[in-house]
Amino acid sequence: xxxxxxxxxxxxxxxxxxxxxxxxxxxxxxxxxxxxxxxxxxxxxxxxxxxxxxxxxxxxxxxxxxxxxxxxxxxxxxxxxxxxxxxxxxxxxxxxxxxxxxxxx
Length: 105
Prior knowledge:
By secondary structure, the chain is mainly alpha-helical. It has helices spanning 4-34, 37-82, 84-104. Helix 1 packs antiparallel against helix 2. The longest helix has 46 residues, at 37-82. It starts with a helix and ends with a helix.
């Protein structure tokens, strides 16, 4: 089941992967600007490779997040089917609380 902690870890992994990929690409592009023609082409290829790795990492994290979300939906669906009256009561209570909060404004 997807928990808040696992979602936060997934988000942190995604951000860290993006930061690393961007930093690597920026460093390589800066080197390429200062280098000669042949070296610039090589560094450009390395920068593109770093960007592709970051993109692949983002896709992996995205797939994990989708899988966790689907699992959460499945567990919620099972709970609602197993406890329909309890679920209706919780939704009713949430609606009542929301109505009270909105009514006070």
